[in-house]
Amino acid sequence: MADAPFPHRSSQAFIRNPYSGLSIHIATSLRLIWLAILVVALAGAFAVQAADANLTDGCVSDYSADVDYFPDKLKALHAVNFSVEYANHYKVLRVANAYDGAPDYEYVLVQCGAPMPPAEDFDPDAQFIQTPAGPVIALSTTQLPALAQLDLLENLVAVHSGLYISADEVRQGIADGAIAELGFGANINIELALELEPDLAVAYGINPDTDAHPLLREAGVFTALDASWRENSPLGRAEWLKFIALFYNQEARANQVFDGIAEEYAALQTMAADIAEADKPAVLLNSYLSYADAWFIPGGDTYVGQLIRDAGGDPLLSTPDSSASQSLSFETVYEAGLDAKIWLLETYAVNSLADLAALDARFSDFAAFQAGAVWNNNLDENPNGGNNYYEWGAANPQLALADLLAIFHPALMPGHEFAFYRQLPQA
Amino acid sequence: MREQAGARPWILLALPVLLAALLALSLALGSVAIPLDQIAGALFAGGADSQAWTNIVLKFRLPKALTAALAGMALGAAGLLMQTWFRNPLAEPFVLGLSAGASLGVALVLLTAGGGGALVANLGLSGDLLLTVAAGLGSAGAMLVVLAVAARLRNSVSLLILGLMFGYMIAAIVSLLLYFALPARIQAYINWTFGSFSGLSAAQLPILALFVGAGLALAASLTKPLNALLLGEELALSLGVDLGRARFAIILATALLVSAVTAFCGPIAFLGIAVPHLARGLLGSADHRLLLPATCLTGACVALCAALVAELPGNNLALPLNVVTALLGAPVVILVVLRQARGQA
Amino acid sequence: MSGPALEARGLSIGYRRRGKDDIVLGRALELELWRGQLVGLLGPNGVGKSTLLRTLAGMRPTLAGRVSIGGRDIAALKPWQRARHLSLVLTDPPKPALLNGYALVCLGRQPHTDWLGRLTERDHATVAWALEAVDARDLAVQPVAELSDGQRQKLMIARALAQEAEVMLLDEPTAFLDLPRRMETMRLLQRLARSADRAILVSTHDLELALRACDRLWLMSEAGIAMGAPEDLALDGRLGATFQADGIRFDHRSGGFAPRPTKGKPARLRGQGKEAHWMRKALERAGYAPVEEPAAIEIGHDGEAGWQLRVNGSQSRHRTIQAVLDALACPRD
Predict the structure, then answer these.
(1) How much is the pTM?
(2) I need a surface site. Which of A12, A51, C114, C311 has the fewest CB within 10 A?
(3) How far is CA B67 from CA A81, B199, B255, B276, in A?
């Protein structure tokens, strides 16, 4: 459920983001523009050699077939749903498993100023776009942190809706009218989208009959599908910032940002790696949904399952190598989970143990409840209930991992400041 | 001659036996395997060997079985009232828009950002109890609308159409709320629409029992006019039925039964429409003095069966209740339609 | 017997409409129904027969005037009190599933039973008597839904009888029945009015049957209601006036309606009896004018030999009426 592809999940913690802040963007972009002009001028002057950096602004003025225009390359290390292949003046981006039963999508990203490669070399359904791209429509909140981390937010012209977005710059942009709201799924306002003259739209797919992406494509907008929410690995999900970077020739920047995240993540993982099996607390997940008559327990290989295991926890009742969730009866979880040390929730509007007991009085029988060891991931919510765990958190799994490590093994994380998890108070 | 050929009044003796057996089975079976002597211990000897087992029997299986039995009785009886009153075999308790009203109440609580939810939360309610109150208020509101309209519209068909239109309007409002809602809350709303017998605590059960008891008592007092209504409203009137009063009592009884069940268990589909047909088939008589108790008992049995099947004993999985009731109920409705088509041919 | 079982004084019937004039279907009506009498209510479609019946039954409000039953204003009675004095049968007998004939007739006892509708021995005896009275004992054990329209209508009448109300109103009870069943039903009502001492008002389209079975007729037209013995109404022409329409005339002899005679060729029809009766009808239908004086066409029936036809002196014999008509249409020279 947490993995649902809905657009409105996200992060307000752009504040904590070192690369953000509108003034910084502008200054940086100005610098980049000058740099680009210089590079183009140099390239024009000497007219042969391989470029020494990707062109993040402007076009090639004097194309040569022998020049590798993408000296900075990237590769998906953890993500499994996208891959990229480089040629001298274009790159082929492929997205798999964008939704259940989705075909493989192929996008050809051609260096601006270089000739279009012949269409017959590619999938008949492939879409073509020139890089670096300009205005972008981002239909999932999970794409907003990537745009911020890559310093590309100034290109953002529209989102689906500002209601559940946490990022302050985006909320401000919507309030100022600089960023448009287009609506959800197939109800997207296509006329408004076209008026914004976007170079590309990044959408997500659930079911093509109710999604926005077929409509955008039909209207002639280059539309790429974001399958990040289908990644089970926390780092794989964060790695989709590289996917955004490809459209802007920002490979170098993306590698730098992602490597930083991966390093932090690995460091935390190493801290937990030495913990003996016996010291790993049994972690009860989610809660019984009375009207669903089920208690959903994610498998060990799901996003949250991996986070818990990486943080030195033992997800209770979870099927070890499964990347699916199981729906169990309350009885089963009750018998197995009564003594669990820690209880993690992903439940909206539960802010205290009293709230939890009001959902079902039987919850108070659990040892974790009685010990007050119940945590909900909704510390950072926007006024409409949009949860930044699903926005900034999705792009920064090291923050969620640090939270979990501090919950499971507080001694390892003295003075930890929680980003997403809140320990439920009595009332 | 007085005994109706094909009628099986003895079914009224057989059904309680079946009900008792199903209740016992509901206590004995579940996802967790508990030995029979331990179940008996939990029930009668003050506790099983393990506290978890005692709690599972007393806090899970017993309330759930009783809830299922009560809800089945209530929905079956309400369905019978509606089918007789509208003289339509496909009428069901929800045609009056009661569940639509309940769903609006729940949607307002679950789906509005800070709106209705905060309003009711200020009353000191939260969680499932909040949903119960919201659904109860929603269906009570719908009932008031229906009663007000029933006082003006003499024609039951107009009322039927009105109830349907009312339902569509509310469905549209709920869709609108869903459109702007957070996915986690959409999920919570969708879960509510699945229906459940297992959300009730031991403290809530008496409230449900009170409403269902009152509704059934009112329904029992209506058997005579209901029998007359088999001939249609005009002839019932000529037989001395006070139509205005009967209409009011039927709507009130249905509202008591359906609102309470919908509030505590969500909108449980198909029991209301299928159970009366099943009971008629078993009993072989349309005399409400026998048919009403037969429908209640059949409803309780069917609901317990559905709950048992949904739980998939011996398995960890649980199916949404409405999936099971629809799979059990739809064939019954299909059978009725086919039979009628054959009767007309 | 002190007075009429049901009477209406200064009665206006029709529909009230909000903000518009009332639709009045009859005004200042003075009506009486007496025990022991079968009264037929006749009138063209749409004249308000059903509205009158429902107003008399207390199911519709009057526009003016009052209806009283046994001397008491019907509007002041509660439904269960009314049901003890007045029973009703409608055109389309209901088809309740899973109810046998006996249970259906038992419903007629509702005005007399307790809140649960429990039947006493006396109730059962009355039900048995009612079934007997309509000659439907064999239908008692049968499922109502499987019976024919006529059989169900019989049971509905038995149910009305079992109600033990002195007034019985029937709204076109024979409309869906075939001819023999219609005759049977009207005869039954005629018998019941006398033997069970009921005041029965039956609306019908069936003029011929009504003329034969009813003690009195109410002829309803836009002008009002004409009342009297059927024979008087026929003789003074009011019957014909009520149903007048182009191309149709009231046949005083047969007591039915027939196509208005066209100016056809005269044909002399000799003889009496049923053969002559049916030949007359056939000739009228074929456009001839049956006469009794000598004419160019002469037709006679002589027993075993069949029909004898003489056209302008040439004679032929035919076995069937159809053959006679064929011979008239294409005369052989």
Answers:
(1) 0.76
(2) C114
(3) 47, 9, 18, 19
